[in-house]
Predict the 3D structure of the following.
Amino acid sequence: MDTADIKKPENIVYRKPALITDNVMHYCPGCSHGVVHKLIAEVIDEMGIQESTIGICPVGCSVFAYNYIDIDWEEAAHGRAPALATATKRLCPDKHVFTYQGDGDLASIGTAEIIHACSRGENIVVIFINNGIYGMTGGQMAPTTLIGMKTSTTPYGRDPKLNGFPMVIADMISHLDGTAFITRQSVHTAAAVRKAKSAIRKAFEYSEKNIGLSFVEIVSTCNSGWKMNPVDANKWMVENMFRKYPIGDIKDILK
Amino acid sequence: MAFKGAIEIDAQHCKGCGVCVANCPTGSISLSRMVNGKGYNYAEMVGDACIGCSACALVCPDSVITVYRVKI
């Protein structure tokens, strides 16, 4: 059978999700943000909640996420997405509200917001992209940077005596009673992408049940900040990031 | 039952990151020697071993791959 015979509309098994706009993403080649955007778009489309979903953009590389997924968005000040999501969800309880935040946003300047949103048990979804570095501003050390990892502000590697230890936010908030579902996923292989998608879907379904905050951490890469090509960055993530941030479900109150 | 697949790549929007190449189980995708309008070596389908598994499209950050599959 010839390739031209296979390329027919009825044979399509995978295509760009309908909710992803035609704008060219500004992310670097191989950035995990694009994959996570795609998964969120697919989940919203499959659940049929495009009209009732409100996303909250962070400050960071994903600050322009509103250009790429065709839903309603709000733009929060740095780290304040959970606070904005709290207000949005309380004023519009029938909407699906989610925040999309990186580690420089959520784990650093926004630590107070996320801890208190979890503690209050807001019925929102938090998507947390953890790549262990500040990507947008030029690869500075983030709270989640691994010990010994070289960044532009720790050129000899992160030294715990000088820079402290990495923060494992998902494990920290699992001790708070307001959280319903906490999981850590990645998007470096096809299998991992499928698991991450079902985790994001579960998080949106839990937010409909009004049982607390759902938190999906995606361990991801920043190949520009890590100074690697995208394929090597994925390997480095598996070898190093997964030791400190192991993949799997951390908390599920319905289990 | 076997499957045969094909992929179509939006070459102008591909950034040539190569993540799809590393994830293809049959080696049916590689980076072209040609460059697109932005100067990236875009991905292209090679050979006829594609089984339409969608692994390349799932990991593609820019959603430029469309996957087709037929039973043979």
